[in-house]
Amino acid sequence: MKIVHYINQFFGGIGGEDKADEPLSFSEKAIGPARGMQQLLGDQHQIVTAVCGDNYFNSYQEKIATEVVEFCRKEGAGLFIAGPAFNAGRYGQACGALCAAVKENLGIPAITGLFHGNPVLDIYKKNAYIFPTTETASGMSDALSKMARFSLKLINGETLGPAVDEGYFPRGIRRDVFRKEDGAKRSVEMLLRKMAGEEFLTEIPIFVLEKISPAQLRKPLEEARVAIVTVGGIVPMGNPDRIRSFGAEKWGAYDFGGALDLKGGDYETIHGGYNPNFANSNPNYVVPVNLLRDFEKNGIIGNLHPVFYSTAGVGGAVETCQKTGAEISKALLEAEVDAVILTAT
Amino acid sequence: MTTLAKNVGANRIVAGTKIPHPCGDPTVSPKRDHEIGTKIIENAFELLKKQIEVPEIIEAV
């Protein structure tokens, strides 16, 4: 099989940080780690190399991705390898992005290696088989061995086991399997092991949530700007931002200006998890503009922010919700909001 | 659902009326509906004004 291996200017023997602006080049030879990989894979497979400076890649990502994909296509590559990049930021980004581009455009598998703390890992772990490495290149030979062993399995079309067995970072893809023993027996055995303080392997890992310390109001409530945020899915009629009814990944910011309340015909709920009739007739049940106007009029709060922030909460993956929360928070801070009423349904 | 909110990390939690209409009650008179909704928002501001260290919940009106 023909394999394309991408490395940066340092591993390509061109130079260090001083050569990070080195443009993309291709070689019919296996250079640096690619040569190590060639030795591990054996002569019946041929590795050709793509080399690029980390800064150059960073500046021309799309162009380089296109050229690397073209090179793979021209070479008839059946596999793409990048790095390993260990904990390097720019190099890690290049490896991840190129793996994603090759997989998306050519449908061939892509392999790379990153340190578990590398911030680009979470971005690309779904697009490539990413193997855990040491933080620095001191673990090069171990990384190459792992990547080579798996490459051969892919090349030879062997059946693959789960990520935990093959050794790469889990991508969150679940395959249906038949278990020998039924669930009741397996769960009781798991519980007995847990109670005995023995090790057990959960079949479904539960996402662990971090504890958030309570924020404290930084000024008297009478001076505070209060905003409404909702996960009840209230949107302008017609759902202009096409927020999904289940597992929404988008959110919207909707300006209601000086309105004293929200009118039934102007807004609707697109949340797929509760009876929408009440909210559709009276959106204030979920985005209580009418109630907050009273508090504003009576001077209990400084003012009601004329924009509400909305998404549909049902079926939201924890990570998506955290991302949405962070983005809405940024908008709230920019609008100098002091306190939020968040309604949930 | 207030326990769920506490378990996933919310710190100031106020129970609403019902899931399809957390900020009021469409089955009672408009005046009573408004009173209930107002009380829920009052509860929210009571918690917002407070310096809290651990999650606090105000249950149903």
Structure description:
The complex is a heterodimer of chains A (345) and B (61). With 345 residues, chain A is α/β, with parallel strands linked by helices. Chain A contains eleven helices and twelve strands. Chain A folds into two domains: 2-166, Rossmann fold (3-Layer(aba) Sandwich); 221-343, no CATH class. In chain A, helix 5 links the parallel strand 5 (110-115) and strand 6 (129-133). Chain B is mainly α. In chain B, strands 1-2 form a two-stranded parallel ribbon. In chain B, strand 1, helix 2 and strand 2 form a beta-alpha-beta unit. Chain B is flat, with a radius of gyration of 12 Å. The model of chain B has no long low-confidence stretch (mean pLDDT 93). Classes of the chains: A alpha/beta (345), B mainly alpha (61). Chains A and B meet through helix 9, helix 10 and strand 12 of A and helix 2 of B.
Task: Please provide a brief summary of the model.
Helix content of chain A is 34%, strand content 19%.
SSE map:
The complex is a heterodimer of chains A (345) and B (61).
Chain A: E1 2-8, E2 25-27, H1 33-41, E3 46-52, H2 54-59, H3 61-75, E4 79-86, H4 89-106, E5 110-115, H5 121-124, E6 129-133, H6 140-155, H7 163-166, H8 183-195, E7 225-230, E8 234-236, E9 252-255, E10 267-269, H9 277-281, H10 289-297, E11 303-310, H11 318-334, E12 339-343
Parallel strand pairs in A: 1-3, 1-4, 4-5, 5-6, 7-11, 7-12
Antiparallel strand pairs in A: 2-3, 8-10, 9-11
Chain B: H1 2-7, E1 12-14, H2 30-49, E2 56-58
Parallel strand pairs in B: 1-2
Spell out the key features of this protein.
heterodimer; A: 345 residues; alpha/beta; Rossmann fold; 2 domains; 6-stranded mixed β-sheet; 4-stranded mixed β-sheet; 11 helices; 19% strand; B: 61 residues; mainly alpha; two-stranded parallel sheet; 2 helices
